[in-house]
């Protein structure tokens, strides 16, 4: 532990110089000096040179005292120099073999890394064999003050690594010393990247009991400075209070924090954003030492609590982090809880952040972190809300060569769950995630997509049936790539254009921008409410970046077939045309759409239905159907009532339609699918009941909703029917007419 | 006299035109449905 | 730990239709749907409008199918009824007119 050796050096060097002073007391000034010098050199702590010495008002004053070779300018050398040392003594102190007071002015101390110079013997790690009990830090001096200290540990090239400038004082050094230390401790790395300093105003009380030495240290520390990616601004001094306990048996050291330590504001410069950590507190774990190096153990236990983090990327309260374990060889357990962060640029809030992780070998070049649990609630704080809050719980491993996490994401009400497995290669900056959404059951008045993604409420509502999906997400080296496999089981929804149900099938999409299908996709379309219900449809289509290509779409309809001609429908806004082909629709089945089918007919019609998918909804743009031979007969009480009624037209029409033999039929249809349409039915044929099958033409124009166009019969003979009129070619009818004039 | 054979144009068919506008005698029932809807789902209105 | 309080804007998301009407942001139209009264409407209000209108269309379409009426007819009947019942002060758009405040 380099730190431990350094403290010993500092203490020992002060002790060495003080011992010099003691020597003087015992053997008179000159003699004392020489004897002390010899004593030190015999221990290898020399050479010692004293400039001048004299007695002044009862105290021995030595000036220009040097330990070790004076620096010869060029290369720095380890050694110490005191401008002036004053040894004061009183009679009773003398009798006790103690000095009353030691005063050192202008102590300069240099220890060059790797060249211990005069301090070499102090630095020899005691070999196991003659491991002597660590000497207690006590000296036969009552009080000592050292003003203008400049002690530094230098790198080989002379740059100071650790330097203390200030002054020190001590009372009752021979019994339970009370030491004060004020000044500035600065440290920097050899490469000059780190340069930080702390102003110290510390006092320490030493005490010894049952084989242990306790140093209770308190005071203020005001750090400032920085290094690669971090710096601490000068701030109000931070009160410090901890106890260092050293075993006098095996030298084991233990540090206990008396109270939480208010950490200074730390500023981190990460890539382009800066983060400020404030209000952090380092607290002890209840009744546990912060650092424990006693009897072979090596562990830290501490709690970093209440730290705030502020930056443009993230702001909020960091979780309370508890660390426990061996900081070097690990395992180092970390638990964190109650983090509440807000990511303003992403409009996200993270709350309830909790982590349980173990770092296997913290000091190893590439530590491995096993994550027992990483959970948080992700809340969208954008307006409008983009998605409902998500509870994420992951576990796995993170190491330099790869991060693997697995777990699930749920909505707080536990209605939807997605399993996630994620792997990321930090070196290559690439990764993939597999998200599996098991079947979700949607139902009216219960779970709806809008409950999870509010914006969906404007796109689909009344969603029913089951959906499931798996998504493979790839990132790194270019934009995010997604492959989505969605499977629908009897799904249904209401959208602006139509209400659809009975959707079954699987779709494979890749994207985003643009979303495209992975080749043609086929879906069963159970039912479309399109004015008239279209059932048992099936569509195969391809989504391309700019178009929705219908490869094939067909519905069995009225005994025949409705199918979409293969078409590329542009995705861009504006009206889009699709041609629907009608083949062999049976008139009888068409009539069945009416509420009370009085019409029975046989005969088939075919034709084309141009459909326009416009902003205002779906519109039929002049559909036309034609049919050849067939028979129509309208048997209903209103028809009978009309036959023989006063209105000649109604009578003629009714009798004709009792049994109408059709040679040709033409049907046109035009108008908004869900609005008022106009249908034109023209029948050419004859009826045996009318002038012995005299050729007739019946033109029927009907306006109304699609579903009602065929239940027209009720109104056909309604004298109130608006615009009921007929044009008779008078002379033909007279010639043929059997009816009375 | 020489009988001439004239091909008679086929008789002109009797033409019946009917215009029907499907009135909404369903109007009353729809109004009732709307009232029920307003009562059952007030949060939509 | 209570989640972060949602900011007021996100609150608009939950704000019911009545609140938006009371603020004069949303009004009732002759065609049975709600519309934004102001020309610029914030996204949260627009999202409520889209959601409400689609839910209304869902109900209107069901009535049209049940009664054999056309959707547009049902929409008009609903529009008339809703405007007639709207409390005074509500912004309404009768057919062929702009937004007016109901007296």
Explain the overall architecture.
The complex is a heterotrimer of chains A (741), B (45) and C (103). In chain A, helix 1 (2-27) runs antiparallel to helix 2 (29-42). The longest helix of chain A has 26 residues, at 2-27. Chain A is mainly beta. The radius of gyration of chain A is 49 Å and the shape is rod-shaped. Chain B is built from one helix and one strand, in the order βα. Chain B starts with 13 loop residues before the first strand and ends in a 5-residue tail after the last helix. Chain C is of the alpha+beta class and 103 residues long. A four-stranded mixed β-sheet of chain C has the order 2-1-3-4. In chain C, a hairpin with a 4-residue loop joins strand 1 and strand 2. Classes of the chains: A mainly beta (741), B alpha+beta (45), C alpha+beta (103). Chain A binds chain C through residues 338, 340, 342, 349, 351-352, 377, 379-385, 389, 450, 454-455, 457-462, 494-496, 499, 529, 531, 533, 595, 672, 674-676, 704-708, 711, and chain C through 1, 3-4, 6-7, 9-10, 12-13, 42-44, 46-47, 49-51, 53-55, 57-58, 61, 64-65, 68-73. Strand 46 of chain A pairs antiparallel with strand 1 (14-21) of chain B.
Task: Give keywords.
heterotrimer, B: 45 residues, alpha+beta, rod-shaped, C: 103 residues, 4-stranded mixed β-sheet, disordered N terminus
Number of strands of chain B: 1
Largest interface: A-C, 42 and 31 residues
* Largest sheet features of chain C: 4 strands, mixed
Number of strands of chain C: 4
Mean pLDDT of chain B: 80
Instruction: Give Rg of chain C in angstroms.
Output: 15 Å
Distance between the termini of chain C: 49 Å
Q: How much helix, percentage-wise, in residues of chain C? A: 40-55%
Order of helices and strands of chain C: HHEEHHEE
Q: How are the strands of the largest sheet of chain C arranged?
A: 2-1-3-4
Global structural class of chain C: alpha+beta
Pfam families (chain A): YdbH-like
InterPro entries (chain A): YdbH
Summarize it.
The complex is a heterotrimer of chains A (741), B (45) and C (103). Chain A is mainly beta. Chain A has ten helices and 46 strands.
């Amino acid at each position: 532990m380099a730190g431990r050796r350094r403290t010993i050096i500092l203490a020992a060097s002060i002790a060495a110089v003080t011992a010099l002073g003691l020597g003087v007391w015992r053997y008179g000034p000159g003699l004392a000096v020489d004897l002390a010098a010899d004593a030190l050199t015999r221990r290898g702590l020399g050479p010692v040179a004293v400039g001048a010495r004299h007695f002044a008002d009862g105290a021995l004053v030595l000036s220009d005292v040097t330990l070790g070779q004076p620096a010869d300018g060029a290369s720095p050398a380890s050694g110490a120099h005191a401008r002036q040392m004053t040894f004061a003594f009183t009679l009773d102190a003398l009798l006790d073999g103690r000095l009353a007071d030691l005063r050192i002015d202008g102590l300069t101390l240099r220890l060059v890394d790797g060249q211990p110079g005069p301090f070499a013997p102090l630095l020899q790690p005691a070999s196991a064999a003659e491991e002597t009990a660590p000497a207690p830090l006590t000296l036969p001096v009552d009080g000592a003050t050292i003003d203008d200290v400049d002690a530094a540990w230098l790198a080989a090239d002379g740059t100071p690594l650790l330097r203390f400038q200030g002054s020190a004082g001590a009372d009752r050094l021979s019994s339970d010393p009370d030491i004060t230390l004020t000044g500035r401790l600065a440290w920097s790395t050899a490469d000059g990247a780190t340069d930080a300093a702390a102003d110290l105003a510390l006092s320490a009380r030493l005490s010894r009991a049952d084989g242990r030495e306790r140093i209770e240290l308190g005071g203020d520390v005001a750090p400032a400075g920085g290094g690669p990616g971090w710096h601490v601004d000068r701030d109000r001094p931070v009160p410090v209070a901890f106890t260092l306990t050293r075993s006098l048996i095996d030298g084991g050291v233990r540090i206990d924090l008396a109270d939480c330590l208010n950490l200074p504001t730390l500023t981190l410069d990460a890539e382009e954003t800066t983060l400020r950590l404030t209000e952090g507190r380092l607290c002890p774990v209840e009744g546990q030492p912060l650092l424990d190096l006693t009897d072979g153990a090596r562990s830290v236990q501490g709690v970093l609590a209440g730290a705030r983090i502020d930056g443009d990327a993230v702001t909020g309260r960091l979780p309370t982090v508890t660390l426990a374990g061996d900081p070097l060889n690990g395992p180092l357990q970390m638990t964190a809880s109650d983090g509440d962060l807000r990511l303003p640029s992403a409009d996200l809030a993270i709350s309830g952040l909790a982590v349980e992780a173990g770092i296997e070998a913290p000091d190893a070049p590439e530590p491995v972190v096993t994550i027992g649990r990483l959970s948080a609630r992700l809340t969208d704080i954008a307006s409008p809300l983009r998605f409902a809050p998500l509870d994420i719980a992951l576990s796995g491993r993170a190491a330099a060569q790869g991060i693997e996490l697995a777990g699930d994401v749920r909505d707080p009400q536990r209605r939807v769950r997605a399993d996630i497995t994620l792997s990321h290669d930090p070196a290559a900056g690439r990764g993939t995630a597999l998200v599996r959404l098991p079947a979700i059951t949607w139902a009216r008045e219960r779970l709806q997509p809008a409950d999870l993604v509010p914006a969906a409420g404007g796109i689909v509502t009344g969603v029913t049936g089951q959906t499931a999906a798996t998504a493979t997400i790839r990132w790194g080296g270019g934009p995010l790539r997604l492959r989505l496999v969605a499977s629908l089981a009897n799904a249904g929804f209401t959208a602006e254009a139509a209400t659809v149900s009975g959707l079954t099938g699987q779709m494979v999409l890749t994207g985003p921008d643009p979303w495209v299908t992975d080749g043609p996709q086929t879906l069963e379309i159970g039912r479309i409410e399109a004015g008239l219900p279209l059932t048992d449809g099936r569509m195969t289509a391809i989504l391309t970046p700019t178009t929705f290509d219908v490869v094939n779409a067909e519905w069995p309809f009225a005994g025949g077939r409705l199918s979409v001609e293969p078409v590329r429908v542009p995705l861009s806004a504006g009206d889009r045309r699709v041609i629907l082909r009608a083949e062999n629709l049976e008139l009888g089945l068409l009539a069945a759409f009416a509420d009370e089918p009085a019409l029975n007919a046989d005969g088939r019609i075919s034709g084309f239905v141009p459909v326009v998918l416009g902003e205002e909804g779906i519109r039929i743009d002049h559909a036309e159907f034609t049919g050849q031979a067939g028979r129509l007969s309208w048997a209903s009480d209103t028809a009978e009532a009309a036959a023989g009624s006063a209105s000649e037209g109604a009578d003629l029409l009714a009798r004709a339609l009792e049994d109408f033999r059709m040679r040709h039929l033409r049907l046109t249809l035009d108008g908004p699918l869900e609005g008022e349409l106009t249908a034109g039915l023209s029948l050419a044929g004859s009826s045996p009941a009318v002038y012995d099958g005299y050729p007739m033409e019946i033109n029927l124009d009907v306006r109304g909703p699609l579903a009602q166009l065929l239940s027209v019969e009720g109104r056909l003979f309604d004298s109130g029917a608006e615009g009921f009129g007929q044009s008779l070619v008078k002379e033909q009818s007279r010639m043929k007419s059997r009816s009375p004039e | 006299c020489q009988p001439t054979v004239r091909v008679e144009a086929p008789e002109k068919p009797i033409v019946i035109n009917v215009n029907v506008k499907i009135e909404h005698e369903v109007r009353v029932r729809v109004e009732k449905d709307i009232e029920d809807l307003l009562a059952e789902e007030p949060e939509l209105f | 730990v209570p989640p972060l309080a949602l900011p007021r804007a996100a609150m608009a998301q939950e704000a019911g239709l009545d609140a938006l009407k009371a603020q004069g942001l949303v009004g009732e139209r002759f065609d049975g749907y709600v519309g934004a009264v102001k020309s610029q409407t914030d996204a949260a209000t627009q999202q409520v409008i889209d959601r409400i209108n689609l839910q209304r269309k869902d109900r209107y379409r069901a009535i049209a199918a049940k009664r054999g009426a056309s959707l547009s007819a049902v929409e008009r009947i609903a529009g008339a009824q809703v405007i007639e019942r709207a409390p005074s002060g509500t912004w309404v758009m009768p057919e062929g007119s702009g937004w007016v405040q109901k007296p």
